[in-house]
């Protein structure tokens, strides 16, 4: 499981990397598509954790 801050940062970095690759190589480039799919997974995980509550991950 990821912490909220870690997951947010990972999403930001991956989104930036994907955008750079897509601009450089094209949106249908294999690497751009792979990064997009990875980003989708992280966004789905983030949404799932939002829906179930972050409290289960946070430690005092």
Automatic annotation (TrEMBL):
Gene source species: Aciduricibacillus chroicocephali
Domain of life according to the entry: Bacteria
Identification of the protein by name: Aspartyl-phosphate phosphatase Spo0E family protein
